Amino acid sequence: MAEAVMHLRDVAREFVSGDETLHVLRGVNFTLNAGETVALVAPSGTGKSTLLHVAGLLDHPDSGTVRIAGRDAAKLPDGERTAIRCSEIGFVYQFHHLLGEFTARENVMLPQMIAGVPKAQARVRADELLGLFGLGHRLNHLPGKLSGGEQQRVAIARALANAPSILLADEPTGNLDVATADVVFDELLRVVRGSGLGALIATHNDDLARRMDRVVALRDGVLVEL
């Protein structure tokens, strides 16, 4: 049986605006296993990003547990949550958010060096990851000199730099044209599956969702399997 890298139990999150309380997550239960890719499908405004933020320890649930690395991270102090985020979780967003003054290689080296990896070792890891995405010839290019697809490949490589056990992606190809999105997504799945981590990937694209191992949908604040 595959090892669970993340387990959410009865996770709830609500937001208060004036006299109105919006119940975004109403008791989410979800297990992500090592080596599997799971598509999260949900219309905009239904809590998809909130769920990813709670699962990624960027936000606290109002109730429930978020179990990562054998611990209920929902109840940990911020410093310990940050440490788990840095070591166990990689994030990819719709927009690449690369640092424009750093090269592709340096963007992938940076999170490693923040985590205490020696510069020479971080460089080797960055070159290896960028090579997996076919960017071995673009290592020294600044983001502004890369195409949209190349920028997103660098962002994915950066998310994998510290060898996380979990990848969370929010519409990772949503800002790309259809043809480029198709290629980048295939590369993402290939590298993720080769690394053995668990990935929860939000997408509006049904074709991309069907390429993953499982599909879950967020409906009325709960997750359902499709």
Q: Can you offer a commentary on this structure?
A:
This protein starts with a strand and ends with a strand. The chain is built from seven helices and ten strands. The protein is of the alpha/beta class and 226 residues long. The chain has helices at 48-55, 78-88, 104-114, 119-132, 148-159, 178-195, 206-210; strands spanning 4-17, 20-33, 37-41, 63-68, 71-72, 89-92, 166-170, 198-202, 214-219, 222-225. It is globular. It has one domain (4-225): P-loop containing nucleotide triphosphate hydrolases (Rossmann fold, 3-Layer(aba) Sandwich). The protein has a six-stranded mixed beta sheet with strand order 6-7-8-3-9-10. α3 crosses α4 (119-132), α3 packs parallel to α5 and α5 (148-159) runs parallel beside α6. 35% of the residues lie in helices and 29% in strands. GO terms for molecular function: ATP binding; ATP hydrolysis activity; transmembrane transporter activity. Belongs to the ABC transporter superfamily. Macrolide exporter (TC 3.A.1.122) family. One of its GO terms (cellular component) is membrane protein complex. This is ATP-binding cassette domain-containing protein.
Q: CATH H level: which superfamily?
A: P-loop containing nucleotide triphosphate hydrolases
Tell me about the biggest sheet?
6 strands, mixed
Q: SSE order in H/E notation?
A: EEEHEEHEHHHEHEHEE
Beta-strand residue percentage: 25-35%
Strand order of the largest sheet: 6-7-8-3-9-10
Determine the CATH topology: Rossmann fold
Total domains: 1
CATH architecture: 3-Layer(aba) Sandwich
Q: Total number of β-strand segments?
A: 10
The low-pLDDT segments are: none
Radius of gyration: 17 Å
Mean pLDDT: 91
Which structural class matches the secondary elements? alpha/beta
Pfam families: ABC_tran (PF00005)
GO cellular component, one term: membrane protein complex
Organism: Acetobacter estunensis
Domain ABC transporter: 6-226
